[in-house]
Amino acid sequence: MQPDIVCLGEPLLEFNQQPDGRYLQGHGGDTSNCAIAAARSGASVGYLTHLGADAFGDSFLELWRREGVDASRVQRNPAAPTGIYFVTHGAAGHSFSYLRAGSASSLMTPADIPEDYIAGAKVLHVSGISQAISESAADAVFRAIEIARAHGTRVSYDTNLRLKLWPLERARAIIHAAMALSDIALPGHDDAVLLTGSADPDAIADFYLALGVSVVALTLGKEGTLVATAGERRRVAAHPVEPRDATAAGDTFDGAFLTEWLRGEDPFAAADYANAAAALSTQGYGAVTPMPRHAEVLAFLKR
């Protein structure tokens, strides 16, 4: 299978704290979440990563099979584990704790990137987390971007800044270098403030456009999304809901946005659809389970 969207990064088994204090097992990892969100919106999607030769890795292969995400190029490493993380909830929102050091995904290298698979795709999606997990993984992402650019595959990049994984100065250097090689910038506002030094959404959009991207979709939480191109920019309103758990809302936005964009919609319409998908994804607990399918998003938009 040759998918239209190829996502690259690290999947993580999730343990999400429930209101009664117990932890619900699920699946996470930003680019894996994006892949599943895109598949549920109707896209043809594939995933690139390394998994441990363990039960957690097996569960991801079963998840992707069930969700229609092509995992034919996923590799297994018998000497390294599949990573995990925990989500806890408090008055300030949700927070993450990771057990991912030395994971199979963090051992990926540029030599592990399949040129034909990326060359045949329409979009390659990567993130700051894809590059933060190790130096070799950062180089692997740059190799994937190089292949994409050589073959006319568009590159989508979500900053997804995680300062538990790397210092801010290194994150800025790597993320800005990768973004300068990308076509679509998908930053969150909180990340962008730290990375660019500006809190003004228009200034942030200008910053990323100046790096060379064609489309910026800056997510602003309850304020919606600022979508900017070289010739036009608009605020696309959010779809208000009462959130239960915002885990993977940004990843859901990414997958939904890319799917609609590939359907031929303009980026403003794609952002409206993605805002709705992200809102719906906050109505349950965990990264994957609450992600909506295409028909659900369309019904929500017709409310």
Structure, described:
The protein has helices spanning 30-40, 55-67, 115-119, 128-132, 135-151, 168-179, 189-196, 201-211, 249-262, 267-281, 294-301, and strands at residues 5-8, 12-17, 23-28, 45-48, 50-52, 69-70, 75-77, 84-90, 93-99, 123-127, 154-158, 184-185, 215-219, 225-228, 233-236. By secondary structure, the protein is of the alpha/beta class. It is built from eleven helices and 15 strands. The protein is globular and about 50 Å long. The longest helix has 17 residues, at 135-151. Helix 9 packs antiparallel against helix 10 (267-281) and helix 10 packs across helix 11 (294-301). The strands form three sheets. Strands 6-4-1-10-11-12-13-14-15 form a nine-stranded mixed β-sheet, with helices on both faces. Strand 2 (12-17) and strand 3 (23-28) form a beta hairpin. The protein has one domain (5-11, 31-50, 114-301): UDP-N-acetylmuramoyl-L-alanine:D-glutamate ligase (3-Layer(aba) Sandwich). The mean pLDDT is 95.
